[in-house]
Amino acid sequence: MASNKIIKIGIVGGTGYTGSELLRLLAQHPQAELVTITSRKEAGLPLADMFPGLRGRVSIAFSEPDVDKLKRCDVVFFATPHGVAMEQAPALVEVGVKVIDLAADFRLRDPALFTQWYKMEHSALGLLEESVYGLPEVNRERIRGARVIGLPGCYPTSVQLGFAPLMQPDLIDMIDTSLLIADCASGVSGAGRKAEVHTLLPEASDNFKAYGVSGHRHQPEIKQGLEAMAGRPVGLVFTPHLVPMIRGIHSTLYARLKPAGLGVDFQAAYERHFAGEPFVDVMPFGSTPETRSVRGSNFLRIALHRPPGADVLIILVVEDNLVKGASGQAVQVMNIMFDLPETMGLLQLPVSP
Amino acid sequence: MASNKIIKIGIVGGTGYTGSELLRLLAQHPQAELVTITSRKEAGLPLADMFPGLRGRVSIAFSEPDVDKLKRCDVVFFATPHGVAMEQAPALVEVGVKVIDLAADFRLRDPALFTQWYKMEHSALGLLEESVYGLPEVNRERIRGARVIGLPGCYPTSVQLGFAPLMQPDLIDMIDTSLLIADCASGVSGAGRKAEVHTLLPEASDNFKAYGVSGHRHQPEIKQGLEAMAGRPVGLVFTPHLVPMIRGIHSTLYARLKPAGLGVDFQAAYERHFAGEPFVDVMPFGSTPETRSVRGSNFLRIALHRPPGADVLIILVVEDNLVKGASGQAVQVMNIMFDLPETMGLLQLPVSP
Amino acid sequence: MASNKIIKIGIVGGTGYTGSELLRLLAQHPQAELVTITSRKEAGLPLADMFPGLRGRVSIAFSEPDVDKLKRCDVVFFATPHGVAMEQAPALVEVGVKVIDLAADFRLRDPALFTQWYKMEHSALGLLEESVYGLPEVNRERIRGARVIGLPGCYPTSVQLGFAPLMQPDLIDMIDTSLLIADCASGVSGAGRKAEVHTLLPEASDNFKAYGVSGHRHQPEIKQGLEAMAGRPVGLVFTPHLVPMIRGIHSTLYARLKPAGLGVDFQAAYERHFAGEPFVDVMPFGSTPETRSVRGSNFLRIALHRPPGADVLIILVVEDNLVKGASGQAVQVMNIMFDLPETMGLLQLPVSP
Amino acid sequence: MASNKIIKIGIVGGTGYTGSELLRLLAQHPQAELVTITSRKEAGLPLADMFPGLRGRVSIAFSEPDVDKLKRCDVVFFATPHGVAMEQAPALVEVGVKVIDLAADFRLRDPALFTQWYKMEHSALGLLEESVYGLPEVNRERIRGARVIGLPGCYPTSVQLGFAPLMQPDLIDMIDTSLLIADCASGVSGAGRKAEVHTLLPEASDNFKAYGVSGHRHQPEIKQGLEAMAGRPVGLVFTPHLVPMIRGIHSTLYARLKPAGLGVDFQAAYERHFAGEPFVDVMPFGSTPETRSVRGSNFLRIALHRPPGADVLIILVVEDNLVKGASGQAVQVMNIMFDLPETMGLLQLPVSP
User: Fold this and answer.
1) In whole angstroms, what is the distance from residue D109 CA to residue D223 CA?
2) Chain D environment of C294 (Cβ under 8 Å)
3) Hey, which residues of D are catalytic here?
């Protein structure tokens, strides 16, 4: 049975999009109490002044970082730039505070890989070692007992869940794992709430482009996840694109079938694999999921295609990059960690149109 | 105390935007049960096939119109073109079913005006006579006992609430009522879910234009509402514009001050007027409310300005045209009619960004 | 030397986007004179009433179809639905009028394939046989003497030019031609100026989706083109997506390299292949072309990538679907056919932002 | 007769939207030669690297500011922040170089007003005194002989031209000049190419808001212009709004009619007033001009309305804020100053859709 306890919550950071989305979700969570949210730069500013959508519902202000206050929380979310959580997490974990990092500090198991892609040394190797990758559909049981969670990136959530059934023992030999292709497209909020020219409306709207084609931080993260599931090396090409929309990620995944895979009923396999998952919707074969069908919600939808005349399986995946791709997943993970119903506070329906 | 009874709900129409938004809200309402939704054209189609955001939450299909089924409901919403509710409402009201019309059949008190603007005779004059205009902040007590509700249009909600405090006895003589100007802008969903060239994305996006400048159906509706509040004739110019966005209405209202009005504290008057209203937010003087600050929510925000060097009061109002401007207001009205807490099922926070 | 003669032009259709774009380009072409434009539905309507951007520059009106008038033209463009040109072209060609069809009647060489994809019998097999596929960078010499042109589709232009250098004898054995992947994204104007629900702004904006994944008419057209260049069968998966923008096509093309291809300097090969092409811009290796960099212009930009750790060549291609993907290409072809400088009237710079 | 001489051009600044638009227009101008463009920050960067739309057409790079180089130009455009032109213009004017400032240094005649709104002292009072306000439809003859031009702001161009006919002796007494209202809406490029949070796509798209309601720099500029035309004081309320589109300004202007004005044929008066103007299009009475009908072009369209039941004249005006509202107007002014045909290089048709 679910407990009735109120979870005391601290947020470090919180002036960006994952932070504001976390605030929106937690303000509607029946057993969450926001105790403190810190921002050195905005200390003193009422949250509702920065995010008017919270007016009348969230009355606290950003405060100066204060470790003692954070230590009195049950869980602390880091919605900060990369590198902050690994500095502050050890002191919190030590006193029994759970840590959920929405940045990348606890995503890559290999500290050398972290350094290569994020250009800094990892300063909490012990915690990294014990940390759990917060993808509930893959790691639910390990999340339950974790002290530190590295929450997946937005793209990695959609690509890993899209390929996950193929990584299982019964299907892995049906496909050519030497080259999986993830051709993905994200709304601009994925770039964060930083003042930059290339994401200004006059630059990014009525426009489409690829980016990071020659190397993106999410590539090693996805590869690591797929290989962990598959238990073997996997070749992965990941091509992200920028879409003139606010929210949403759409992944078009390509797996080449081996002769043995040509007759497999992948649809049934996907439905079996995700049966019972509250947030994963396997649509009828041949559907074309739209990002707006998950806008503002924690759902992720998947559809399979077999293009005519080719030995290829195409998997289409949509999610809201700020919800299932970030803050909604963070709350889902929190629910698991605190033995609450996994869907608590997360059943808002998508807002569409 | 609020009752615990489940409200049995029928929807006529429901393939448009006000219909789908009603479905979204009712599916999240703890005491509402959707019994039937009719669409001659789409009969048999599961709702979730048309609106994938409802997948897994709404399992019924559109059904053929069936009066007997509707008669077993507690309330029937008409999310139909103009002219349908007036045909079907009498039979429902007769057997005690409450009717809430989201179209225009019960908005204009004067049937001649209805005929002039909607190009059809009114066929239910008796019901029109007893019907109540469903604007809770103005008509709450009359709504409570009504059998038939004419729900305000999207623009009229924002303009009437924006001018409402000025129409009261203490302020009405402070302003020049011979010419009020409502310069309004709406997202494209306000034009409905009809296949038309001028609202195609390539026509309506990256574009801005006025429309209906020489006459729009909402002008007589707003004028009627303001005059009912003021108890005297009011001159009104209403200029709608089309904004390349999905949802949202922004009204910029101009009232010229008489000399007696120059020293009045309008901010205090507005705050007093709307004190206790759960969905009206009077922002600090000089604020500039954004439509996204109410996206997907039933809130309406108001801010006042006194432009320098002019004897003018400017009132800025934002609402989500599909929620407070239509389906959210419909649920709010239902809550009042059935003696439920007025905010029940309507406290979702705005989705922003 | 270029002649100074004025080309007398007829347009059949012209109320859609390729038609209006053709009007825009021809109105700025120094040696083009629009003699007649027909539309049964809009006969009598001044063009500038439908397309206000033409006010003051194009004074003629749509007229009833009139074959005699068309026969007095030098060239007739068909900006009609599929199936119209094949009916009317023979009578025009017979009297020496050149025909350029922007629809699909003369794209597919195989009439059975045409019937399969366009659900109609081909009624002008003789003309189909002699018609030339209007892709200047591939077919320039044959276009020069052609009487009937089948203009490529928007996607096929970008995909064929993107893969073209790889189809040449020196490179074809460097890649795995059994599976080429074209993952493409188009602005909504690609769906035409038809009133349809799925392309309304509230449906298509702030949204991203794939479509036609299980079969799209442009797949056989592209495959035909690639095979013609390669002189051998080619496997092609084509996945189109809809982007919430007005104009622009972005193609992300994947070719797997054979061991022999791993050391090849594809950048040099592409630059050599397109040297001298006035409208094809091979950007520096590793660039990420944006659709806005060609908005409103006839240019097409290409950039190559070698993603790390994979034996794959990625080719990125952008074009304006209404210009190089349709009407600009039509004018380019006309220039070639009438021995005018190929770039005449087509050197407008992209409009960005 | 127009001379054939090539105008040697320098640009100071040029990394913003008015700069890039100026580059686009000048690159297509048959008698303009860009000699130098300076940017301290971007010195050495080829223009086409920053603005890929210019690839293949503009080969020069940004260079360090170099007064000697500028002195060898015929005209220097300042596409800089406010305050730069007034520092550098005197040295250029002294040696006979014409100066056209796209910023605000030479807009306001009264240096005290300049200081009040732009928070800096004016450092070139003599030049300010002789400078001419570059609005050709009002000031054409004075522009011809000017040495220094203060180019109008984007909003002021549309509002002043919209009200201009009413400011003439024959009409000025027909309207209530104590309160003119200009309710305007601009695309986001009007905010410039600065990295700021509020103009990021996720903040500014799918959103609408007013701004600067309690005071905007363009209010005194417009008021100054109207009063200069009218020869008397004019009351003006100016309310700008931000539209989620890239380009375009739409102004909805309200003038209350005096009894004497009720029978006036304003349509005829407007058509007379603008007869012969190459860039001003007075549309049929009751039209609703769209911003996209001028996108990318130097045209400005005007339409008049008389809303029913009110003694009000509504004037709708659209322009492209970067063309007629800035860089196109700059080229138009240059053409006048150098005795070229006023439309030279400026007759590109609008790009729509």
Assistant:
1) 12
2) 53
3) 154
Half-sphere CA count of B271, side-chain side, radius 13 A = 7
Please give the single-letter amino acid code of residue C41. Answer: K
- The helix/strand count (H/E) of chain A reads as 12, 13
Helix (H, G, I), strand (E, B) or coil at C307: coil
Whole-model pTM?
Answer: 0.97
Polymer length of chain B: 353
In CATH, which superfamily holds the domain spanning C7-152+325-337?
NAD(P)-binding Rossmann-like Domain (3.40.50.720)
- CA angle C16/C20/C21 to nearest 5° reads 115
Q: Work out the end-to-end distance of chain C between its first and last CA atoms, rounded to an integer number of angstroms.
A: 37
Residues of chain C with CATH 3.30.360.10: 156-321
The CA-CA-CA angle for residues B319, B321, B323, to 5°, reads: 85
Give yes or no for A188 touching D (CB within 8 A): yes
Domain B156-321 matching CATH 3.30.360.10: the answer reads yes
| CA gap B74, C109 in Å, rounded | 63
Contact list, D241 vs chain B (CB under 8 Å): 185, 250, 252
Residue type, D65: P
Q: Which CATH superfamily is domain A156-320 in?
A: Dihydrodipicolinate Reductase; domain 2 (3.30.360.10)
Closest Cβ opposite residue D281 in set C51, C56, C246: C56
- On whether ipTM exceeds 0.95, the answer is yes
Verify whether the Cβ–Cβ distance D349 to C297 is below 8 Å: no
A55 close to B (CB below 8 A): yes
Structure tokens at B82: 């103009």
- Please give the residue of chain D at the shortest CA–CA distance from A199: D200
Flag if A53 and B348 touch (Cβ within 8 Å): no
Chain C residue at shortest CA distance from A285: C214
Q: Does B53 touch chain A (CB under 8 A)?
A: yes
Chain A contact probe: residue of C176, C184, C206 with most A CBs at under 10 A: C206
Give the number of other Cβ atoms within 10 Å of residue D338's Cβ.
18
Tell me the C-alpha distance between D280 and D291, whole Å: 14
Task: Name the phi and psi angles at D10, rounded to 5.
Answer: -120, 145
C154 is known as an active-site residue: yes
Other residues' Cβ atoms within 10 Å of the Cβ of residue D3 = 10
Helix (H) or strand (E) holding A70: helix A67-71
Subunits adjacent to chain A (3 or more Cβ pairs under 8 Å): B, C, D
Q: What is the separation of C-alpha D342 from the centre of its chain, rounded to a whole number of angstroms? A: 16
pLDDT per residue of chain A (353 residues) written in tens, 0 to 9: 456 899 999 999 989 999 999 999 999 999 999 999 999 999 999 999 999 999 999 989 999 999 999 999 999 999 999 999 999 999 999 999 999 999 999 999 999 999 999 999 999 999 999 999 999 999 999 999 999 999 999 999 999 999 999 999 999 999 999 999 999 999 999 999 999 999 999 999 999 999 999 899 999 999 999 999 999 999 999 999 999 999 999 999 999 999 999 999 999 999 999 999 999 999 999 999 999 999 999 999 999 999 988 999 999 999 999 999 999 999 999 999 999 999 999 999 999 99
User: Which residues, 6 or more positions from C307, have their beta carbon under 8 angstroms from its beta carbon?
Assistant: A213, A214, A215, A237, A238, A239, C314
Distance from CA of A243 to the nearest CA of B (A): 15
Give the gap in angstroms from C-alpha A235 to the nearest C-alpha of chain C. Answer: 7
Looking from the CA of D232 toward its CB, the CA atoms found within 13 Å total 13
CB contact under 8 A, C295 and D353: no
CATH superfamily of D156-322: Dihydrodipicolinate Reductase; domain 2 (3.30.360.10)
CA separation, residue B202 to residues A353, C20, C209 (Å) = 17, 13, 17
Q: Are D16 and D79 in contact (CB under 8 A)?
A: yes
Catalytic site residues of B? 154
| C27–D349 CB contact, under 8 Å | yes
Do A277 and A336 touch, CB atoms closer than 8 A? no
